[in-house]
Write a structure and sequence with these properties.
CATH superfamily of the largest domain: Metal-dependent hydrolases
Largest sheet: 9 strands, mixed
Number of domains: 2
Structural class: alpha/beta
Shape: globular
CATH topology of the largest domain: TIM Barrel
Number of helices: 17
Strand content: 15-25%
Radius of gyration: 21 Å
Helix content: 25-40%
CATH class of the largest domain: Alpha Beta
Number of strands: 17
Distance between the termini: 22 Å
Length: 433
């Protein structure tokens, strides 16, 4: 057995405080909601974390820590230098598997072109599909691993990765296979999602569209056998209709996949309410969500994955986080990392945007990138540092957890451990020999 003692921690977030759940949130004043979120952080000052064989043995006040001579030997002791330590972050919504680049579209949007206008001219998702289709398996795998490396450097130890840039079922299954192969053995844990993104140009109507939807529904068991954990369906103008979304989500559920849904991003469709009724783990975006949709999410326990990077880049209305919280909906934050509308892997930046633009408190933002994000991808054992949890943790260049939310840009993550093994030391990868 091997033991690591990380001591001299100035501030520790265990995320093991009383959970923030339920529609009773609606009965609380805003200040009470914030206070409840702060208690959920499980904040400890002058703390020690003890890891035995990659599992948390103790995480709490140094005065309560067991003596070193009573721990399984050998023991390695490291200093937290009086800084902040938290669980590794979870990113519950990404599109990390792609080829090509779309910087020209970024320029066009800034000069006044809309997302829809660019798509009609052959750009947007279609552009990435073309580049991904002709890319070699080796190039796609290498690109994914590089992006996982970047996420790791920014403090993320678990990430959801969608397919979606193949569109036809066989192409999507190819991406699922490549993704699972590329992520095998990587320190950043991956939750693979089979994404029904948009109909390709040759299947936008008539029999071809019906064939596409039927084939996507029929391959759900194959996707599950190919290690996909969830299915996600994009429901919006230019994507799948509400009826098609229900059909695809129902097929995914029958195949044993967790359910996710791009919902209410550009237009209101009712997809969030549908996904909640079907028992979805999460719904994504939600810029156009209505009161009825919020209440449906609260009743079902479906988590709202808010994506500040996409709202910022596309100049969309900011999702109403205060209304979601008031209705008792749990909020997670994701980067939505993709080559077109949210090219970032920084969860610390998403926290900053959620606080400054969506009205989350710093404590609520931390919950949204740890326990709530992990729950939204069906990994409730992640995002916390309680006894028996996997020892994924981050040492930050900060004295207080609020400082991470306050910082706009940069990378405050200094050191990172995955299952107790140090993979980043003072900003440098330590596991590559």
């Amino acid at each position: 057995m091997a033991t690591l003692v990380l001591r001299d921690i100035g501030e520790l977030l265990t995320l093991c405080g009383p959970p923030v759940v339920g529609e009773d949130q609606a009965k609380l004043r805003r200040a009470e909601q914030v206070q409840k979120a702060e208690l959920a952080l499980g904040l400890v000052h002058d703390a020690v974390v003890i890891i035995v064989d990659g599992i948390i043995h103790f995480a709490g006040p140094s005065s309560d820590a067991p003596p070193i001579h009573l721990l399984p030997q050998p023991v390695t002791v490291q200093s937290g230098r009086g800084l902040l330590v938290t669980p590794g972050l979870c990113d519950p919504h990404t599109h990390l598997l792609w080829a090509g680049e779309r910087s020209h579209e970024f320029d066009l949007r800034n000069l006044g072109a809309s997302y829809q206008q660019i798509a009609k001219q052959g750009g947007g998702i279609a552009s990435t599909v073309r580049a991904t289709t002709i890319a070699s398996d080796e190039a796609l795998s290498a690109g994914l691993r590089t992006r996982l490396d970047t996420a790791l450097q920014l403090g993320t130890t678990a990430v959801e990765v969608k397919t979606g840039y193949g569109l036809w079922p066989l192409s999507e299954l190819r991406l699922l296979r490549l993704g699972c192969e590329a992520m095998a053995g990587h320190p950043c844990a991956v939750s693979p999602t089979f994404l029904c993104h948009v109909p390709p140009p040759e299947a936008r109507e008539g029999e071809a569209r019906e064939r596409l939807v039927s084939e996507l529904a029929s391959v759900m068991p194959i996707a599950r056998a190919g290690l996909a954990e969830s299915v996600d369906v994009y429901c919006d103008v230019g994507a799948f209709t509400l009826a098609e979304t229900e059909r695809l989500l129902t097929a995914g559920k029958a195949a044993g996949l967790g359910l996710r849904c791009h919902a209410e991003q550009f237009t209101y469709t009712g997809a969030a309410k549908l996904a909640a009724r079907l028992g979805a783990l999460s719904v994504e975006h939600l810029e156009q969500l209505d009161d009825e949709g919020r209440k449906a999410l609260a009743r079902s326990g479906t988590i709202a994955n808010l994506l500040p990077g996409a709202a910022l880049s596309l100049r969309l209305p900011w999702p109403d986080a205060a209304a979601l919280l008031a209705d008792g909906v749990r909020i997670a934050l994701g980067t939505d990392c993709n080559p077109g509308s949210s090219y970032t892997q920084s969860q610390p930046l998403m926290m900053s945007l959620a606080c400054t633009q969506m009205g989350l408190s710093c404590a609520e933002a931390w919950l949204a990138v740890t326990v709530h994000a992990a729950q939204s991808i069906g990994h409730p054992h992640r995002g916390r540092l309680g006894r028996g949890a996997r020892a994924d943790l981050v040492l930050w260049e900060a004295d207080h957890y609020r400082q991470i939310c306050q910082q706009l840009g940069g990378n405050p993550a200094r050191s990172l451990w995955v299952a107790g093994a140090q993979v980043i030391a003072d900003g440098v990868r330590a596991d590559l020999g």
